């Protein structure tokens, strides 16, 4: 064998053209001279000669490499076009959100919600002094013992077992078809639902649908355009779920779909459409007990309200300004309801807001709330009386906030009396035949409820809820008893009984998706 030689790149090469690698031994790395049977360095070292021979790589010609690159580019272009023409958005991987909302009506969620409710309603946590005081009060008032923990543990058995198909259905995610979105827009406008649920601008949604937002959505569009359409459809279909026209809809699946857009929706530039998306999701989840999620969604919505200037009446002169102001009042009521219900600081600080009521609201809202009559989108009355929401804000600030709790007992009593008077003044503005007292007895004839709208029922329940929170505040200060204000304690007990009695009379008219 001829001795190997160095090629141009400095690598050793045999006479046959094979590349020869160095041999690594305990003596270090040595070069092979290609001798047979062993090369000279190996013979001297007393080692076996192991030469690794590698064939030079086969290289494609420049022409072939260019053809391969062009073919790959055509494949990528075809993939991009297929994604753009897909009716389903491809901005996010759906697998990332599997299980994000496994079941909107899960029993465990409902039980967690219930336990959170009773904790802040004077029952307290297990083993707490507040719970002991509550059980003692029940015994004194009713003569019966009531074990809260045992009651809560027995609740799951009252609901029986669920169909496994329900859980499987709850994990699905889909995008509503165009014809269903169109039906929802038409139904929302036809029934005048905007009057009590002002969460969508029908003209704007129709324009988005006509622009094929569902079919041609891609990464260059605002995600809010798609999100508000889908969230709106989920909300309307769940409200009309018992009607034959909506029998094939799957609102929970639409909700899961729009939830997959929330990460991008949060970081996008704020707009009216993103605000509509967040508030529709929040009002969908609120009655289902997802209060922590609702709090987070409302926090984002409140920030958008501030950024768009909807907390000031001057916004009405801007494009969609009146609609924005309507959404502000809607979210304001939602926020104050959650604050007083769960004794948490409200997201809206009243000192930063202009709380002048809409023109003509006070003179016309009472009759519209209580009596069954066609709704008009031109006249917004909201889910509850705006004046009731203002009272809720005061109840939390004066009685349940950290500042209110720190006030002397005499000051708290003064606030309780003043709020009671303000609530009574609001009640006196209701039509005489619609005062809550008229409907709050077990002997009230059924026919008196016939002409009462569901909005009126909600307003009655709102009234008693606020009355209970006002007079129940006297027990919200640690171990202090009701003893120094027995009349307020008795009013609290009385209103608690009235709420249960009232609900039992109208339960056939209440729906689980009714706004609070």
UniProtKB/TrEMBL annotation:
<dbReference type="GO" id="GO:0003677">
    <property type="term" value="F:DNA binding"/>
</dbReference>
<feature type="coiled-coil region">
    <location>
        <begin position="59"/>
        <end position="86"/>
    </location>
</feature>
<dbReference type="InterPro" id="IPR007219">
    <property type="entry name" value="XnlR_reg_dom"/>
</dbReference>
<keyword id="KW-0805">Transcription regulation</keyword>
<dbReference type="InterPro" id="IPR050987">
    <property type="entry name" value="AtrR-like"/>
</dbReference>
<keyword id="KW-0238">DNA-binding</keyword>
<dbReference type="GO" id="GO:0008270">
    <property type="term" value="F:zinc ion binding"/>
</dbReference>
<dbReference type="GO" id="GO:0006351">
    <property type="term" value="P:DNA-templated transcription"/>
</dbReference>
<keyword id="KW-0539">Nucleus</keyword>
<protein>
    <recommendedName>
        <fullName>Xylanolytic transcriptional activator regulatory domain-containing protein</fullName>
    </recommendedName>
</protein>
<dbReference type="GO" id="GO:0000981">
    <property type="term" value="F:DNA-binding transcription factor activity, RNA polymerase II-specific"/>
</dbReference>
<keyword id="KW-0804">Transcription</keyword>
<dbReference type="InterPro" id="IPR036864">
    <property type="entry name" value="Zn2-C6_fun-type_DNA-bd_sf"/>
</dbReference>
<keyword id="KW-0175">Coiled coil</keyword>
<dbReference type="Pfam" id="PF04082">
    <property type="entry name" value="Fungal_trans"/>
</dbReference>
<feature type="domain" description="Xylanolytic transcriptional activator regulatory">
    <location>
        <begin position="294"/>
        <end position="364"/>
    </location>
</feature>
